[in-house]
Structures are given as C-alpha cells and as structure tokens.
Amino acid sequence: MNENNYSIPFNAPRLVGSELEFIRDAIERGQLSGDGYYSDQCHQLLAQITGCHSALLTHSCTAALEMAAILADIQPGDEVIVPSFTFVSTANAVVLRGGVPVFVDITPDTLNIDPRLVEAAITPKTKAICVVHYAGVPADMDRIAEIADRHGLLIIEDAAQALGSTYRGRPAGSLGDLGAFSFHETKNVISGEGGALIVQRAELAERANIVREKGTNRKAFFRGSTDKYTWVDIGSSYLPGELIAAYLFAQLLRRDDLTADRMRTWNFYYSELGMYRKLGVGLPTIPPDVTHNAHMFYLLLPRSELRDAFIRAMAASSIMTPFHYVPLHSSPAGARFGRPSGSMDVTDDVSARLLRLPLFYQMGNQAERVVDVAARTLRNLL
Fold this sequence. Notes:
Aspartate Aminotransferase, domain 2, Aspartate Aminotransferase, domain 1, eight-stranded mixed beta sheet, 14 helices
C-alpha cells in the first residue's frame, strides 16, 4: 500500500504563496541553471535567518553533508562521531571520503546524540563530531562544543529537520562550524528536493564555493577576482537549478506561517494524546532551553509488537504512520564501513518502538481524525 492509497498520508506538499509566480519569473529572466537571481535571494535570506557567514543552496541535504565532509578535510581512516539513530546520509558523507563513522548512542528524552558518550568515542583519529537535531529539537550544543573545543574537532550540524529551531536563542544550522538543511518535500519548507550548506567559518567560505562549482574557481572568475576559470580543487555539481530556487524562495518567505500551522497540529496531538503517557506511551520531549519547529510528532509504544500493531490498525483506517530508523550501527553498510562506540541500547530500543503521525501544512480536520483513530487504537492495544 503506497502513500497515495492513504486518505491521510504522512506528508502532503502544498503551494503556500508565490511559487508558480516566481517559477514563471525565473523562466522569463532567462537563466535556469543554478546561482541566478532566486538562488541569490535564497542565499541572502538563509544567511539572515541563521546569522551565518554564508549560505549556499545545494540539490539536497545529502549534497550539503558531502560538501561539509570535503571542507572538513576528511581523509581515509579519519573518524567522525555520529549518532546511529539518523538517516544514512549523515554517515555516507563520511564514508565517501574514506572516513569511518563512529556510532554513538542517543539520549532517551530528545533522541539526540548523548554528549556524555561523545568524549568516550574520541580517538587520535577523530576529525569531527556530526550532530543531528532529531525532529527539529536541537541537541545539547554547548556541551558538545566544549568537547569539540577541548579536542580541536570540527562540528558538523545535520540540521535537516531543524530550520527555524533555536538552541538558547541561537538558530539551528549555525551552532557548529558547518551545517546542512534539507528542503525535501517531507520537511517544513520545501522545494521537492533541495538543501543548503551553512558555513560559519570564514576561512572555509571560498573553498565551499569552489567545491560546489565542481572544483572550479568559477565564482571568483565571475567576480573578477581571477582572470582564469579553471579546475583548482575537488568538487562536484552541487547546485540546484533556478526553478528549484524560485519555488524554495516562495516557501522561505512563508516560513513563519508554515511553522505556526504545523505547531497548531503538533500542540493538538500533544494535548489530546498526552493522557496515554500513564499507559507507557512516550511523546516528544522539548527541553526548556530550545524552541522547535514542529517538524515531527512521534509516539513511542511500550513494546515493538504494539508499535507494529498500531501501524497496521492505522493503515486499516487509511492513515499512514511510518517508523524509522533502522539503526546505522546494525545495518549491513554500517557494520562494513563504521563501528559503534559503547552500548547502543537506547538507539536499539527507540528504533523498535517509534512511529510518526501525519504532520503537514493545512491538515485541518484531518488532524482530528488522526487523533480519534489513534486514541481508539491505543485504548484497544493498551
């Protein structure tokens, strides 16, 4: 049963503003390749939102993470600490440079990487710490930054889910040395596929442009700061086209409306399903020093068989409630290319019990139906 067969899918992309108008304008401007007018508008707005040194659109968050690994100068044998509870792109970016992802367990409250376990995973080969802000809830960045500073390590933020979230008043994506956002259609702000690299360290900004432009100094050439346009470094074609950028810019302009709408649904789920915590159902935890962007609402059922039964019951009512992730440390590629550091008890436990409720812009009364069916299902199972 694919997503199109569900009357309430997990995600439903929406037009929210001037997407079609901007796409038409991009065509009329006569440049469909990347880094035109709308790419520049997105770069400026993302830099403003995050307060970063520079922001660069990419064709995916995966691409932004791969660029970050290049800029971090990951070499064969270098180690990068990552949570095992994350999407494969977080670790793949390291492996593609010949590096070794070292998997660390998560905390049972936010499901983010556990700072207490990060330091124990550091070896003389460690080059960086990659932090994931799960469900748009920022990790404990001050503790991680203190560890990174003490050991001379870079911090890469996988902020794929966290545009608009903050940690102690500071925007997610700009809390480390390099950050990556996703604008995949399942995210809050979308362009179908798409992403952005956030650069905080000024000395990495020029190389970021080169890496993104296939390893050439094209950007400097068009600025007039060099008289030759040539191959100077490694890189790839990481730019999105202008139609993607035009669509994204329209969404970015409505980011506050998008977040507010999702927050209403998130709060509704939380208030209506909170009573089931006394029966052992876990709900998202939001620490007092962060703000989140309502990217995701998940439930943690008491046991894996109850999680699976819940998903089947919701599907029988045509409501999609998927689970994730298969822990990277126990995946075939994770065992081949990486290694765990210490116990993965929380990761293994959470991945077996977690499911996600539908959450997208303008759900309307569909959220009420999700709650009604979910509540009935929980009563029957528990």
